[in-house]
Design a protein that fits this description.
This protein has about 475 residues and is of the alpha/beta class. It folds into three domains: about 20-110, no CATH class; about 120-185, Alpha-Beta Plaits (2-Layer Sandwich); about 195-475, Rossmann fold (3-Layer(aba) Sandwich). The chain is built from 17 helices and 14 strands. The chain is globular. Helix 7 packs parallel to helix 16. It has an eight-stranded mixed β-sheet, sandwiched between helices. A four-stranded antiparallel β-sheet has the order 1-2-4-3. The protein has a two-stranded antiparallel ribbon with strand order 5-6.
Amino acid sequence: MNNSSFKLDMILKFLNELLKIFIEIFNGFLRRDKKLYFSLWTSFIIGIFVLFECDIYLFKKFQVLSLYPSGIFFKIYAHFLVWLPILLFGIAVSFQKKRFHKSLIEVFDLVGLKNSLGSYPRFLLLENLLEKTMILKVTNGGFPLSDWEGKRNRLEANMHIFIDEIKQIQEKGIIEIIFSYEPMPRKMSIDQMDRFNRYNFLLGRDRAREYLYDFSKTPHLLIAGETGGGKSAFMRQLITTIKYNQPESEFYLVDLKGGVEFSIFEKFPKTQVIMEPNGVIKCLNSINGNLKERANALKARKLTKIEDFFDSIEYKKMSNEERLSHILGRRIFVVIDECAEIFLIGKKNSSSTHEIREAISSITRLGRFAGIHVILGTQRPDRQAIDPQVKSNLPATVCFRIHDHGGSLAVLGNGKATKLPNIPGRAILQLGSEEIEIQTPLLDFKEAIKALDEKFPAKASLNLDQKKYEEEKAIKSDIII
């Protein structure tokens, strides 16, 4: 290679590296990278610093004022200082990816991702998805997805990362690994319970953000998981949060297992606990009747959904007492702790089972516009426990750990619930096609009592015998605190 070719090659390499730096800066803007925003603020401060000639003081202090640039050199100097933090951001990200790419081959060799031809999966892309979550794209290297899944733990150990998901784009022969350098939180508590309004509650959080549930957008919810996963505790904090922030809300709590999980709520206004099979059909038929009355009330006001009424002047002028008595004054929640017990009530009487399924199906189909919501819980997730017609009307699912692949398949449509770590409160949130691993919040028995006693000091006194509760809890293995 002659000297001119060598120089041209060096120039092209330099321009290529410079282009990569500016691409990283551009991508930083697209993903709203906080580090880039910090660099922008630093550039702004430096600009103010130079504009008001504060930098001259430093030159004087170090007795190098004669080196202070002027004319065209001052412009170059000023622009360099202002752009420096942003350029350093691009250089740092670009360097991080280069270092990652170099170490990747070593990792593939250690975990056994070297094919018969002696080659490794080829690095394609590394970029941020969220603040603390990244996506790595590589060629599959001739290895099926099952091989990648089988080496998941070894990849995590050797790369010092925490993998959320490994996906394959079959037609392109690409593997996508979504990961983070930080572990998921193992425990989460609820702070400032009064910050939730408009019938929202806290689903949980992943590494980067909290997830709120809005019943106006997603009217019904399925909660599944085996004993010990956190299903009952999740239902408790849901009810407590809604009742605490929306005192006018109406709850029908169904628990045919004879447990005491719902007993802390039974003395509150507009809250009914149903523990007998005979009361279930009566309750559901009454709610369906209420649904028709609400539909007529909305129609009379020329409104199409309950949210329109909540935004009206009529509703905003109401007191809590008036909302409790008005047909449209509140949302209604039907919470069933173990839906298998409901659907199997009529095991020997098919007409009863059919009537229950029809009633729940009607509420899940038509309840959204009327502000009536169904929350189903099950620890026996199979086709018998979850009626397919009802499930098709449940747009959201929170699924805790399930050991049985068939159970996970019945709830999520895949086996991901079997792969959740054995951490209480860890769950998969499924909203449509989106699936997110979250840590759900823990609100224990005492905290729930304290919060609701503060909200309803005169309405109800929760003098529940704590010792008795603990004894019953120990017997009822499906109750999780």
